[in-house]
Amino acid sequence: MKHFSLLASTALALMLTSHLAIAATELPALMPLPSTISQGDGSFPLTASFTVAYATPPDERLTAAVNRTLTRMQYSSGVALAHAAVVPSAGSLTISVSGPDAAVQGVDDDESYHLAVTAQGIQLASTTVVGALHGLETLLQLATFRDGHAIIPAVTIDDQPRFRWRGLMIDVARHFEPVEVIKRNLDAMALVKLNVFHWHLSDDQGFRAESKRFPKLTAEGSHGEFYTQEEMREVVAYAHARGIRVVPEFDMPGHTLSWQVAYPDIGSTSGPFSLPDRFGIHDEALDPTRESTYKFLDALVGEMAAIFPDAYFHIGGDESNGNAWRSNPKIVAFMKSHDIKDTDALQVYFNSKLLKIVAKHGKHMIGWDEVFTPGLPKDIVIESWRGQESLSKAAAQGYQGILAAPYYLDGMATAEKHFLADPVPADTQLTPEQQKSVLGGEVAMWAEQINPQTIDSRIWPRAAAIAERFWSPQSDRDVESMYTRLWPVSLQLETVGLTHISGPQKMLRNLAQSQQPADLDTLASVLEPVSFHERYQGQHTDARTPLDRLVDAVVPDPPSRFEMSRSVNEALADGAAAGSAREVLRQRFQSWVDAAATLNTLISLSPRMADAAPRVQQLAQLGQTGLQALKALPGKTAPAGWREQQTQIINEAAKSVALTRFTFLLSLQKLVDAAGGAIQ
Amino acid sequence: MKHFSLLASTALALMLTSHLAIAATELPALMPLPSTISQGDGSFPLTASFTVAYATPPDERLTAAVNRTLTRMQYSSGVALAHAAVVPSAGSLTISVSGPDAAVQGVDDDESYHLAVTAQGIQLASTTVVGALHGLETLLQLATFRDGHAIIPAVTIDDQPRFRWRGLMIDVARHFEPVEVIKRNLDAMALVKLNVFHWHLSDDQGFRAESKRFPKLTAEGSHGEFYTQEEMREVVAYAHARGIRVVPEFDMPGHTLSWQVAYPDIGSTSGPFSLPDRFGIHDEALDPTRESTYKFLDALVGEMAAIFPDAYFHIGGDESNGNAWRSNPKIVAFMKSHDIKDTDALQVYFNSKLLKIVAKHGKHMIGWDEVFTPGLPKDIVIESWRGQESLSKAAAQGYQGILAAPYYLDGMATAEKHFLADPVPADTQLTPEQQKSVLGGEVAMWAEQINPQTIDSRIWPRAAAIAERFWSPQSDRDVESMYTRLWPVSLQLETVGLTHISGPQKMLRNLAQSQQPADLDTLASVLEPVSFHERYQGQHTDARTPLDRLVDAVVPDPPSRFEMSRSVNEALADGAAAGSAREVLRQRFQSWVDAAATLNTLISLSPRMADAAPRVQQLAQLGQTGLQALKALPGKTAPAGWREQQTQIINEAAKSVALTRFTFLLSLQKLVDAAGGAIQ
Fold first, then answer.
1. Burial class for A644, CB neighbours closer than 10 Å (0-12, 13-18, 19+)
2. What's the CA gap between A322 and B239, in Å, rounded?
3. B237 alpha carbon, distance to own chain's centre
4. Nearest-CB residue to B546 (from A78, A487, A606)
5. CA angle, B205 as apex, B200 and B211 as ends, to 5°?
6. Which of residues 547-606 of B touch A (CB under 8 A)?
7. Which of B220, B234, B319, B480 is catalytic?
């Protein structure tokens, strides 16, 4: 047995062109990386005579998961496994789950599993079904081909998560997402072992959860786009079947304009209100001074608490700016008479009363940073959108916390940046005891600029890199290893139904009105969207803005950034790979030059792409820059002034155009610097 | 006003690379072609101030359709239209529907519409809502770009279908298709004006419709894959909203093994039975001699008739081989005592009794060819899987009929072949009166070799060409025009949710384990699946066979066949285009040669593609053949024997390998013949 350290696992095959086969000494891409893994000799062959044995009586959830696993493994291996026989003992796969699971999955549940594959068989053991589900996902990632046969390599894995709370938040208020979008994202979450779906169900722009007590919430506050109670229960069951808890969020007292459209009496200002198209912070807030407001909330929280069995209930609490309260004389008078010094203090008053309601219905309260105020009891959980420091402060005072800030996907940051951000970094000032208060983290997908067509490509595959941060050991910080595994995992993610690759491709076909828009692909592959903030400034986006531009068809941190960076590094190194890396680059640069001619025509025809015209010029120009750099490189023979000139071109190209930015400019600059090194 | 005859419309722009812009004198691709169309001057601009006026009070179905239309038009135009204001009069689009629709859409409903677009506005008028829905689809197809602006070209269209019954049958028994698959296919049907969804809900391999009277039908006869009654009602409503009737089929007395698994007593042979994995004809059949069978059918048909409001009820009736009846002494005795001379006559007996049951529940009976027997009343409808002749025979005797045989998609024939097959060909022997008995036709998608991942690419875009056959005038037989419009319509079809392009691409990524499997794309783009029958012979396919091979990732009649044919024709003509056509061909041939090297490695690694290895050799070889032909072409300088040698290579490549065939061999042979013309 060879023992793999975490660092050695970075030796996993670097095959961006195809990840099809692995050498006998390599393991397929696992993500998140297991805490410990050691590789054995040989492998277990996948054949049509595959069997499953349950060493302990399986529950319905486990057998359903095993059936899904076999169907997926059949698809990836091409071997008929989906109807594998269940045998009393000594199956190809033998599963034992030692303890019964609670009916409702808890934050402290044991999620560990032990997976041992030898040439003779596969053993999967865990304490809980959730642990077994994680093990099945690992098993799926292990399946590969060797010598033209489908196999599972011999391996022993003992695995458990670093953090208990590994969430994905989806905002379905700013743009609605139908149930099937939620379901495919739950499947994707399970694949990378995320375990909390945080469902942001209400905001100013829409109330998305059917209430039978208050039917106007959706009848008047949702434009008809909402989940029925049956659908919400279905999502909870679907998530539970995949080892995922569902935490609903009803954001209050701010972000409640949609509530007030339906029930103006609970608001602080007088209506009538209408659902806003505008995003951003609205002044409207619930009236915290009237008992009728709490009566309403008691009924609503009670109704929703019955639909969502999880122990936690998210009350939002963010971005309540106090304007509506300050402008209402009755509320001002209430504050004076109750000795409430400002609107922050009034929100503390509101939170204290809300906390009692949430607790009455058997739930722990979670809220965003703003709910973290002295005086609230220690069983609330703070979700930090402000960041590391805010979270540490809460943890130092004994509050449990979840980190969200560095995992905001609409910032359009790289997978690398998200991956390296740690809920408890190595240099944390927290004591080991305080560190335990950090439950984990949450990926946050806000929905101002996404819709069902684009959401998957905004979440995935970047969320897989974050999932690894939440699960794998702190020492796992090798970015090259992460990217090397991210692309094959990205392909796995589409087999469970995600459209993060096919969706953007479809949109490019639609933009180009061509079944094979090769040149537009060339351009799109090296562009990514600007951040939420830049887009918001650059283009007025509200709820009615069509999300159908080039910026919507390109994806954040596409493979081109990493590929170019690797190629440039290889091209500049004196290794054997330098020659072929330079040829790869040359072809790439040439393809940019070649694509530009067609693209000029294409883009001029379409009002949806007209603003991208400068990008086409730049692509050709930057391609020329690259070609010149490669020519100059061997002897560093670039003429005087060339480097400065090219740098200027690159700097110009770094500006936002058509709400996009190029992915490769840093690498190209490196190449230019190297090629122009001899000059001065 | 220029008046376009049907033939002149074949001048529609031939732009396979991109269909983005049209010249002022061209119209965007319409499919099916309207019966009459005349083009005006100028166009109506699409802007964010678009409004809709209803000249007659719209019903819920119409307003929902208009909203969907605006959302789709917003997506294709990039102009914010989805929330267009409804104004009392003089809208950008003014719609009038003169008559009320019946609650249930009928086979004789008026589906005509009048659409007039001028620079001042758009008028849509029809007798029924269904007519208006068709007009809205035409309007969507008309939207395009001119001079960088989104517009609708000025046009006057008076349109109506040639046939009343334009169906798509989907078999959900052999492989189950979830509701969302059905829904997206209904959207696609509406786009090309198909109006009957024939739902083949039961067969030997599965009973897919929940019965509350006979719950074991799905509990034991469906492997858990079935539609609830709520889901079936949802599908009926979804179809109705799109102008589509739903005709359920419960195939009997044969093809009922799944029924007998659940209720063995209704069978002719003794059980126990189990759901078969094997396809093909099974001997089992209902027992037509016992009254209890008819009592069962009465209850079942009654229950289903209440779910499906359509006037027609399909009872299948095909491929009952009589073996089960002949082997049951009681049935043989019954035949003797009732003077029933053979099993065909026994089926007539069964059908007569069944007909009464179907009629009792208010439905007309439809059945496959086999139900066409003397003595049955004239209000039954014959669906012909046997073909033209069988249909004509029935029509000549006064029976109404629907043609299905030439539209069997699993034959993997070209769109051209399907398009040219006519339910009432120009040389028909039927009198005009008899011709009226031919209600129309149905595209048939049998499901032995498809699943939810592949179904769309098997149906579409070929079904769009057939939809044109059913809708447009008989004189519309220009194959080049049809293909020229088929590809842009194919792109429209994916905007309503079809995965016919993205699905195969995803599968190729999965096969190659690469995000950009360019070389595999090159191979796949010139391959298509062999027919159902060839596949059945070449590979034992049953219900458990994974459908995840190269054959499943390639599509029938991909663009390469038509593109190659056109390029070769141009290259061989003495026109100005010959030079560029030869260059296009040269690049294509070279890409085959180049791809082969990578593909050899890729294919050898994967057991799912191993059988395609010969195809890679052939691709390189045929690429060389093409390159040599192009070189020899100008002076026809190919050496002696070359033509014979290449012809042999082409013939060898025509054989089925890996369940696939090449799309371009006829065109390549043509090129070879031309290049080798001088040689003896």
1. exposed
2. 49
3. 21
4. A78
5. 60
6. 548-549, 559, 602, 604-606
7. B319
Q: CB–CB of A515 and B148 under 8 A? A: no
Query: Could you tell me if residue B182 is inside a domain?
Result: no
Please report how the helices B578-605 and B613-632 are oriented relative to each other, as an axis angle in degrees rounded to 10. 160
Q: Look over chain A and give the mean of its residue pLDDT values, rounded to a whole number.
A: 93
Contacts of B605 in chain A (CB under 8 A): 20-21, 145, 148
8 Å CB contact of A18 and B78:
no
Which ranges of A424-501 would DSSP assign to H, the alpha helix? 432-435, 455-459, 462-471, 479-495
Residues 137-156 of A with CB under 8 A from B: 145, 148-150
**Contact B608/A at CB under 8 A:** yes
Q: Any CB–CB contact under 8 A between B74 and chain A?
A: yes
List the Cα angle B202/B208/B209 in 5-degree steps: 100
Confidence of residue A19 (pLDDT cuts 50, 70, 90): low
In the chain, the amino acid numbered B503 is G
Q: Which residue of B515, B560, B594, B611 is the best one to mutate when testing the A interface, meaning the one whose CB has the most A CBs within 10 A? A: B515
Domain end, chosen from A117, A137, A159, is at: A159
pLDDT value for A136: 98
Chain B nearest C-alpha distance from A609 (Å): 9
Measured between alpha carbons, how far is A336 from A323 in angstroms, rounded to an integer? 16
Is B319 considered catalytic here?
A: yes
Count Cβ atoms within 10 A of the Cβ of residue B510 and give its class: 0-12 exposed, 13-18 middle, 19 or more buried.
Answer: buried
* Residue A548 lies in domain: 502-675
Q: Tell me how far apart the alpha carbons of residues A400 and A433 are, in angstroms, rounded to a whole number.
A: 12
Q: Are B317 and B251 in contact (CB under 8 A)?
A: yes
Q: If you write DSSP's letter for every residue of A582-618 in order, what string do you get?
A: HHHHHHHHHHHHHHHHHHHHHHHH-TTTGGGHHHHHH
CB pairs under 8 A between A and B: 143
Pairing of strands A196-203, A245-250: parallel
Q: Which of A159, A193, A226 is the last residue of a domain?
A: A159
Cβ-defined contact of A491 to B505 (cutoff 8 Å)? no
Task: Provide, as residue numbers in chain B, all residues whose Cβ is less than 8 Å from the Cβ of A607.
Answer: 77-79, 145, 148-150
User: Is A78's CB within 8 Å of B610's CB?
Assistant: no
Nearest to B502 among A487, A502, A517 (CB): A502
Q: Note whether residue B414 is domain-resident.
A: no
* Residue entry with tokens 């929703």: A304
CATH no. for residue B42?
Answer: 3.30.379.10
Radius of gyration of chain A (CA): 27
Interface of A with B in 477-496 (CB under 8 A): 487-488, 490-491, 494-495
Give Cα separations from B206 to B222, B234, B669 (angstroms). 5, 21, 45
Beta strands A381-384 and A122-126, pairing class: unpaired
The predicted pLDDT at position B23 comes to 56
Q: Nearest-CA neighbor of B507 among B445, B588, B451?
A: B451
pLDDT of residue A426: 94
Compute the mean pLDDT over every residue in chain B, rounded to the nearest whole number.
93
Q: Number of folded domains in chain A? A: 2
pLDDT higher than threshold 80 for residue A26 = no
Q: Note whether residue B361 is domain-resident.
A: no
Structural domain contains residue A272: no
CA distance B40 to chain A (A): 22
**Residues of A designated catalytic:** 319
**pLDDT band, residue B24 (cuts 50/70/90):** low
Classify strands A36-45 and A2-4 as parallel, antiparallel or unpaired.
antiparallel
Contacts of A140 in chain B (CB under 8 A): none
Q: ipTM > 0.85?
A: yes
**Would an 8 Å CB–CB cutoff place A513 in contact with chain B?**
yes
Q: Tell me the β-bridge partners of A382.
A: A367, A401
